[in-house]
Write a structure and sequence with these properties.
This protein has 150 residues and is mainly alpha-helical. It has 7 helices and no strands.
């Protein structure tokens, strides 16, 4: 094998390897910011169900099932024990809804809210403070999204 054919084989191998897509090794963008975003967006939607739970409006709670699912996966992306506990509590809420028991729904909802430390976003107006600093912030389109504009 002469030098020319050796370099041709090396170049061909390099081209083939460059054409193979690399293995994805992303972490799923898990950071304190994404956890806070999930807690803020989906936690606020869950907290807003307080009146529906008190009134026994099962349809309104069922319509927000995705908020529970997204909260559980977003707030606890790496803590499997807390995530599994939150999923079990979510299942208790929807089990009570299927049985039609208002008291059980309220009890399961209150337990879920307390265990996961869910609180609604604060209502901020631009005279009191600033809620966000760019439109990329999750609070920009919520009641916590006041910004001072001159």
């Amino acid at each position: 094998m002469d030098r020319r054919s050796a370099f041709a084989q090396i170049a061909t191998a390099g081209t083939v390897l460059a054409g193979i897509p690399s293995i994805a090794s992303a972490d799923g963008a898990v950071s304190s910011a994404t956890i806070n975003r999930a807690r803020g967006l989906y936690g606020d939607r869950i907290a807003a169900l307080k009146d529906a739970v008190a009134a026994g409006d099962f349809k309104a709670i069922a319509e927000e099932k995705n908020a529970f699912i997204l909260f559980n996966s977003g707030a606890y992306p790496t803590n499997k024990a807390k995530k599994n506990a939150a999923i079990a509590q979510t299942n208790e809420i929807f089990k009570a809804i299927r049985s039609g028991d208002k008291a059980a729904v309220k009890s399961a909802y209150d337990a879920y809210m307390a265990a996961n430390e869910i609180r609604p976003l604060p209502e901020i107006n631009s005279n009191v403070g600033q809620g966000y600093s760019s439109e990329f912030d999750f609070r920009s389109r919520t009641k916590a999204g006041a910004i001072y504009v001159r």
